Amino acid sequence: MMYRKRPRTRIEIYADIMLSLDRMGNCDRLSRLAMMVGVPYDRLIRYLNELKSLGLIRWDSSSVYLSKKGMELLVNSRGARDELVLALTGLIQGSIKTIT
């Protein structure tokens, strides 16, 4: 029986985007970021909009990069993907509670 890898959750993809942006410094080619993260371009755009609305990235006409809040989250999780996923989960659940 072959082991099948489970699909990544949306929050895991957020973490992968943030880690990729951290490695790149900033990104002026979204197609390259989409390839690094392993998501289709149109889905990357949706995820970037969601990360921007959470205040974790800055996105202007020329590039995408981590915001101060995004950098702090990354530093606090020591750049470890699993810890970043937990921090993002807490942040997103907290923002959902404040909306409702």
Automatic annotation (TrEMBL):
Residues 8-79 form the ArnR1-like winged helix-turn-helix domain. It comes from the Archaea. This is ArnR1-like winged helix-turn-helix domain-containing protein. It comes from Vulcanisaeta souniana JCM 11219. Signal peptide: none annotated. Gene3D superfamilies: Winged helix-like DNA-binding domain superfamily/Winged helix DNA-binding domain. InterPro entries: ArnR1-like_HTH (IPR038723), WH-like_DNA-bd_sf (IPR036388), WH_DNA-bd_sf (IPR036390). SUPFAM superfamilies: Winged helix' DNA-binding domain.
